[in-house]
Design brief:
four-stranded antiparallel beta sheet; 3 helices; globular; Dihydrodipicolinate Reductase, domain 2; 8 strands; 28% strand
């Protein structure tokens, strides 16, 4: 629940808002999981009347082999979760995009048998500072001349989806990516 006018997320003239700040992560995550680019997107976007930034967005992305749906907000209770649903099972990632550096991360794996009396298995990962990992990978690529895990072209493709999200929010209909 961010209502601080000095916070970058609430400053429209410098790119504030929830979609740029938070929505970029489920977009890149979905593109990674589908190993494809979305064909088109639909979105509903609510703007803060004081800040003129997007404070709540609902986004549907259509991929060649499925759909991804996410919600993001700068003015709701803090909560993150990513669920990957398939015909035979489910994976849930708790706090997928900025996991706390002081406690383990959990991923829940449901092989689809839970409704038939089975159980959901939790995979637990030791705490790690994701920002430190990003910095180390970037520094290593510069020092060693190795490729970045996500090249600049990937960022450009993510921005194309973000642009389509905003177009769809204005038009009220699906927009091509």
């Amino acid at each position: 629940m961010n209502r601080d006018p000095a916070n970058v997320r609430n400053q429209a003239d410098i790119g504030g808002g929830g979609v740029y700040d938070i929505g970029c992560y489920p977009i890149v995550g979905s593109r990674f999981l589908f190993a494809a680019e979305p064909i088109r997107v639909a979105s509903q976007i609510e703007h803060d009347p004081s800040f003129a930034t997007d404070r709540l967005a609902s986004v549907l992305m259509e991929f060649p082999t499925g759909q991804a749906l996410f919600f993001c907000s700068t003015q709701l209770v803090p909560y993150q979760c990513m669920q990957i649903l398939g015909s035979d099972g489910r994976i849930e990632i708790e706090i997928p995009f900025n996991a706390p550096p002081d406690r383990p991360c959990r991923i829940f794996v449901d092989d689809g048998s839970a409704l038939g009396g089975g159980s959901v298995r939790a995979e637990i990962f030791d705490p790690v500072n994701q920002y430190t990992l990003q910095g180390d990978l970037f520094a290593g690529a510069i020092r060693n001349g190795t490729p970045l895990p996500f090249p600049l072209e990937d960022s450009v493709r993510n921005m194309k989806v973000l642009d389509a999200v905003f177009r769809a929010g204005r038009s009220g209909r699906f927009e091509p990516v």
